[in-house]
Design brief:
The chain has one helix at 3-27, and strands spanning 37-38, 42-48, 54-59, 64-69, 74-79, 96-99, 107-110, 115-119, 122-126, 140-144, 154-159, 165-169, 185-189, 196-201, 209-212, 216-221, 233-237, 264-266, 272-277, 290-295, 308-316, 324-333, 338-343, 350-354, 361-366. The protein is mainly β and 369 residues long. It has one domain (31-366): TolB, C-terminal domain (Neuraminidase), CATH 2.120.10. A five-stranded antiparallel beta sheet has the order 1-22-21-20-19, with no helix packed on it. The protein has a four-stranded antiparallel beta sheet with strand order 2-25-24-23, with no helix packed on it. Strands 3-4-5-6 form a four-stranded antiparallel beta sheet, with no helix packed on it. The longest helix is centred in the N-terminal third of the chain and has 25 residues, at 3-27.
């Protein structure tokens, strides 16, 4: 064998080793998390598994929970008989698959006379609100179908007080100038016409947002990779027309001039995603402006980060740029890959799913419940 061929073989072997090490680095942070811990006075129980790649949890009554299965392209309905103490959180035989043949569904929004589904790169409308087997047969309209996707995709749906829909759209890249201004943004959408535009820009990858009473719309935003301790993961407060800094932020200018800074931050590259507002009179710790958030974890760190649920307590502060300061603490840790999270309507139980682990649904409850 010639030296040239021997050299090429060596380069190929090194390349293969590098790729394998990269794959191990990406997978290993999500393995071996089988002993979760939670704040004293609470307990974590497994509810069910086999949910695929769950990306949303939406309680539609005290008994019925919707789950978006991104990997399977379905929306599932889990029904619970909460009158039976022996099977309080065991799904009943009335559980079913409501919708199939979806393209990576990330959220569902049920309005007065129609339903919206956030799929990869498009927004789908169904002119029906009956959540039964007829829903899958109902006609579907794609009201927006040309949003570019890449590193990140189209995520959460919510609604503003005036009836306009909020749609979260991720960036196509890690750091770049987007060709389409709808990427790395929150969009406003008229769900009757499909008309839409930019509500907030500079939002690299916002997975989820919620309304917090007397505060406003708060939303997560995950920053760029490969820059050490920059940037922290963010929770932002929506100001219509605002620019939240990406891709112009850097370690020396974490909040570029003319842009809006976060109202809460967490560990860089830890992937803080889904938010749940603590209901009033809930036995869970916090106050009227407390938010719980899942922190998925990331391969983009030398030591594992995330794999937890954090509690964010917001407090009014007239001297703060947006009138709010925050304190963040860990509520549950050593989780696998937590993604969607939702309080039961009673406020007495907090549900979350691991995106990995065969899509397992868990419930956190006070020990005395």
């Amino acid at each position: 064998m010639s030296d040239t061929r021997r050299g090429l073989k060596g380069v190929g072997t090194l390349s293969l080793i590098f790729v394998m090490l990269l794959i191990v680095q990406m997978i290993s942070p999500f393995l071996g998390w089988d002993d979760p811990e939670v704040e004293e006075g609470f307990v974590i129980d497994e509810v069910t598994n086999g949910l695929g790649g769950p990306a949303c949890l939406e309680w539609i009554s005290n008994y019925d929970l919707l789950v978006c299965d991104r990997d399977g392209g379905t929306i599932k309905l889990l029904n619970f008989d909460i009158d039976s103490n022996d099977s309080r959180w065991t799904p009943t035989d009335n559980s079913s698959i409501l919708l199939t043949d979806l393209h990576e569904p990330h959220d569902i929004l049920i309005l007065e006379d129609h339903i919206l589904i956030s799929e990869r790169g498009k927004l789908t409308r169904i002119n029906q609100t009956s959540l039964d087997q007829t829903l899958n047969e109902a006609p579907r309209w794609t009201i927006i179908d040309d949003v570019p996707t890449g590193n990140h995709q189209t995520n959460n749906l919510d609604i503003m007080p005036n009836g306009t829909v909020i749609w979260h759209v991720g960036s196509t890249c890690n750091i770049c100038d987007e060709v389409d201004g709808r990427n790395a943004a929150l969009l406003w959408v008229n769900s009757s016409t499909g008309e839409h535009g930019i509500l907030a820009s500079g939002v690299r990858n916002s997975f989820h947002g919620i309304w917090v009473p007397d505060m406003g719309y708060v939303f997560s935003d995950n920053g760029r990779d490969w820059e050490g301790n920059h940037p922290p993961e963010e929770v932002n407060l929506l100001i219509a027309g605002g620019d939240y800094g990406w891709p112009d932020d850097d370690p020396e200018h974490p909040v570029p001039e003319g842009t809006i800074g976060p109202v809460a931050t967490w560990t860089p590259h830890s992937s803080l995603n889904n938010l749940a507002h603590r209901p009033l009179d809930s036995p869970f710790p916090g106050g009227n402006h407390t938010v719980y958030a899942t922190v998925y974890g990331s391969w983009n760190a030398i030591e594992p980060v995330g794999h937890e649920i954090v509690r964010i307590d917001f407090t009014t502060n007239t001297s703060a740029p947006q009138g709010w300061t925050s304190e963040t603490s860990v509520f549950a840790s050593d989780l696998s890959a937590p993604l969607p999270i939702a309080f039961h309507p009673s406020g007495n139980h907090l549900f979350y799913t691991n995106f990995l682990d065969d899509g397992t649904l868990y419930v956190i409850s006070p020990i005395n419940y």
